[in-house]
Automatic annotation (TrEMBL):
It is a lipid-anchor. GO terms for biological process: Gram-negative-bacterium-type cell outer membrane assembly; protein insertion into membrane. One of its GO terms (cellular component) is cell outer membrane. Coiled coil: none annotated. Belongs to the BamB family. It holds the Pfam family PQQ_2. It comes from Psychrosphaera saromensis. This is Outer membrane protein assembly factor BamB. The keyword Signal applies.
Length: 417
């Protein structure tokens, strides 16, 4: 009996010990890193701050500012698109792309006008702006005036930015379609379907046009190349492979925009891999186990990524060897990384923007809008909006400045010395 009692006690101790370990692992899985005090070596200057309407609220969105020819373009989910002077932030023009935009009478009678649901873009090319919508439309606007030039319906929501190249526009949809459109008329040259599993992430890969092909990641974890001239698939290669047993573990979407350097293309998948492939044949040059649904950034032979857990990582593009990794922003829902001067910049869900040294991976500066300039009225109208200043899309480099847009629609220009 004594031996049995000892065995039972030991067994219970092991069970509770393992349960405790599992509980700790679960806690670690959902832990959100706290912002630690930082002795900044570089001070961030706020150059100007304006607004592009009501922003995107808490909806999923890939609306990102675009900067070209000293003009910054920004949009909100409802349908407003605004052009700002890059240096001063002064408004150049503003337009509402809805077919029936709100009128003064609507405002006076508190009438709600349906939003356009802008969600993918802005892409600036061919002297136009291209934006996708959750309603399945692709819109083109004049960069000079903001006039809506054309509107074309495609098969499915356009939640990734359209891409421009070789005289065409390419878009992907949440329904799995890839389409090529004429940039001046919106005429669809071709539209083909890719496989979409029963369960996938909210989002799609923004295509890349290069070498006569449209390169795009798919919801089945593959990198696919479609011949631009004819809309015929050339090759596809698996980036992610299903390894788990649960539905969440089976998600292997390749939602990252393919990055091209010479004859090599780089892609990454959720629950999958970061891979380098030969662009002509699809042959895998190297693969490394990383998981992400954000776009990659590349500079001077180094790939930068934010993985699904909020780690910021630098990888040698030629070999796939990791150069550095930072776990200081674990689970802080980071944007994709952006190369700005000698730093890598990411935003997080609380509206902090973190500047990493490109070489060492150390955080050298941080920026968040101060509360001192907020009025009592501002606090009242934003009382229930938890993510009002959260970062949701990558910053954009404009000259020597960094343009950021937060969920509340604020558009700001920052500068590092």
């Amino acid at each position: 009996m004594l031996k049995q009692a000892k065995f039972t006690a030991i067994t219970l101790a092991l069970v509770f010990g393992l349960a405790g370990c599992e509980s700790n692992e679960i806690k670690e899985e959902f832990r959100i890193a706290e912002i630690k005090p930082l002795n900044s070596t570089k001070e961030v200057e706020l150059v100007w701050r304006e607004t592009a309407g009501a922003g995107v609220d808490n909806y999923f969105s890939n609306l990102t500012p675009a900067a070209i020819d000293n003009v910054v373009f920004a949009a909100n989910r409802d349908g407003e698109v605004v052009a700002f002077d890059e240096n001063s932030g002064d408004e150049i023009w503003s337009t509402d792309v809805r077919v029936n935009p709100p009128t003064l009478w609507d405002a006076l009678t508190f009438t709600t006008v349906k939003p356009e649901k802008l969600s993918g873009g802005i892409t600036a090319a061919y002297k136009n702006l291209y934006i996708g919508t959750e309603n399945g439309d692709v819109l083109a606007l004049s960069q000079e005036t903001g006039e809506v030039l054309w509107r074309t319906e495609v098969k499915g929501e356009v939640v990734a930015a359209p891409s421009a190249g070789e005289g065409w526009i390419a878009v992907t949809t949440a329904a799995g379609y890839v389409a090529a459109l004429h940039p001046d008329t919106g005429e669809i040259r071709w539209q083909i379907a890719t496989d979409v599993p029963a369960l996938s992430l909210r989002g799609t890969s923004s295509p890349t046009i290069a070498g006569g092909g449209v390169l795009v990641g798919t919801a089945t974890g593959k990198l696919s190349v479609i011949i631009l001239e004819r809309g015929i698939p050339a090759w596809e290669q698996a980036i992610g492979t299903v390894q788990g047993s649960t539905e969440l573990e089976k998600l292997i979407d390749a939602d990252s925009k393919p990055v091209i350097n010479g004859t090599t293309v780089y892609s990454i998948a959720y629950n999958g891999n970061l891979a380098a492939l030969d662009m002509m044949s699809g042959r895998v040059l190297w693969k490394r186990e990383y998981s992400s649904y954000r776009n990659l950034a590349m500079d001077s032979g180094v790939l930068y990524l934010t993985d699904a857990k909020g780690n910021v990582i630098a990888v040698d593009a030629a070999s796939g060897i990791e150069k550095w990794t930072s776990s200081e922003l674990y689970n802080r829902r980071l944007t994709q990384p952006v190369v700005y001067k000698d730093t890598i910049v990411v935003g997080d869900y609380e509206g902090y923007f973190h500047f990493f040294d490109k070489t060492t991976g150390q955080i050298v500066s941080r920026f968040k809008f101060a509360d001192y300039d907020r009025s009592v009225f501002w606090w009242f109208v934003n009382w229930f909006n938890f993510d009002e200043e959260g970062a949701y899309a990558q910053p954009v480099v404009a000259g020597d400045m960094l343009i950021i847009q937060t969920r509340d629609g604020k558009v700001s220009a920052l500068r590092l010395p």
